[in-house]
Amino acid sequence: MTTDPMVRIADALERMAPAPLASPDFESAEAFVWHVEPDRLEPVARVSRIDIDLLIGVDRSRNTLLENSLQFARGLPANNALLWGARGMGKSSLVKSVHAEVNRKGLPLKIIEMQREDLPSVGRLLNHLRQSAHRFLLFCDDLSFSHDDQHYKSLKAVLDGGIEGRPENVVFYATSNRRHLMPRDMIENERSSAINPSEAVEEKVSLSDRFGLWLGFHPCTQDEYLTMIRGYCDHFGVRISDDVLRAEAIEWQATRGSRSGRVAWQYFTDLAGRKGVTLP
Q1: For residues 168 and 199, is the Cβ–Cβ distance under 8 A?
Q2: 29 pLDDT exceeds 50?
Q3: pLDDT digits (tens, 9 = 90+) for 32-85
């Protein structure tokens, strides 16, 4: 056993260093989840998503995001996209449905989901994806930052890419309830207490400006809410009269205290269970 202290230190550092990321078999799946400690891309055998035609009331956002994704999958220029707005209105569902639609059209596109808290590791992920011949949609759901959150600096590696630039084969889609990715009261608080208010929050707020596409999602009307449910019923073969559906669905929304695509799906799930219909 060596007694050289430098050799011992080198051996200790080597043991502490994370193992290099094994190259995943990207042919094994269309979707992956990024994990750290240790770094790895785990394939997803079955993605939880609904058919793109069942997304009601978001036609403009759907068409814009789909066209952007098709351009990217074809190797053409495409923008990073921020889907922001009301809770439960299908932001994350749209991303997953668009991904499925692109692949259905015969354009191979991989989707990789990463958690907000893993953003500091995004540089390592991008370096790995840069070496692949595949094209990747990097997806972060429910993205937002608090007053003292430094993770937003890591996001710039995705949006700007530093000196190397964002990998040509990667596009980034994020969803958020906040248009500027941080609470409005924190923006106003920093502006009011800063020595130079115009620059106090510019770095954080400008993050949203780095997304080429801003797609807004707003609360649905009652007619849209009922149309969503009727669409689910027709698609999955659940039989119910319009009068009964309307009465039950409105009562369900009243007990939930809100009306959204998520609430519509929750009511339909209950309805399908009562009707003995199994959902895929």
Answers
A1: no
A2: yes
A3: 999 998 899 999 989 989 999 999 889 999 999 999 999 999 999 999 999 998
Helix or strand run (H / E) with residue 170: strand 170-176
pTM of the model: 0.82
Mark 80-97 as b/e (b = at least 16 C-beta within 10 Å).
bbbbbbbebbbbbbbbbb
SS3 content of the chain, % helix, strand, coil (to 5): 50, 15, 40
Q: How far is CA 75 from CA 71, 163, 170, 171, in A?
A: 7, 22, 10, 11
**Token code pair at residue 167:** 């990998």
Specify whether the CB–CB gap between 82 and 215 falls below 8 A.
Answer: yes
Domain 26-217 has CATH 3.20.20.150: no
Which of 165, 91, 169, 105 has the alpha carbon at shortest distance from 137? 169
Supply the pLDDT for residue 148: 57
Query: Residue 102 and residue 58: Cα distance in Å, rounded?
Result: 18
- As a whole number of angstroms, the distance between CA 244 and CA 8 comes to 75
| 56 vs 67: CA distance, rounded Å | 18
Sign, CA torsion 138/143/146/147: positive
User: Distance (Å, rounded) from C-alpha 150 to C-alpha 144?
Assistant: 11
